[in-house]
Design goal:
By secondary structure, this protein is an all-alpha fold. Helix content is 77%, strand content 0%.
Length: 87
């Protein structure tokens, strides 16, 4: 029973740590060790795994947006261009 409690406590600690670092993960700001730690937790945590997959798809979708060269440049277009430049 104590072992189960400690395992659950560790899982929740890893869950909070992972949730707080998802943005840094996609911004390539984590060390290799931290990246592996995050991926390991996301591999066993359905919530973090789903969040990681959703963020990955969202970023891929944003990077895949194409802009019509003849279209006027607006606020949305400038945001998209900036996001592309940061990726």
């Amino acid at each position: 029973m104590i072992r189960h409690f400690l395992e659950k406590r560790r899982f929740m600690r890893e869950h909070r740590w992972t949730s707080a670092r998802l943005s840094a993960y996609f911004d390539h700001e984590l060390s290799e060790r931290e990246r592996h730690r995050l991926e390991a937790h996301a591999g066993i945590c359905p919530e973090c795994g789903q969040m990681l997959a959703t963020l990955r798809r969202t970023l891929e979708g944003l990077r895949g947006l194409s802009r019509d060269p003849g279209a006027p440049t607006g606020l949305a277009d400038s945001v998209i261009e900036r996001l592309r430049g940061e990726g």
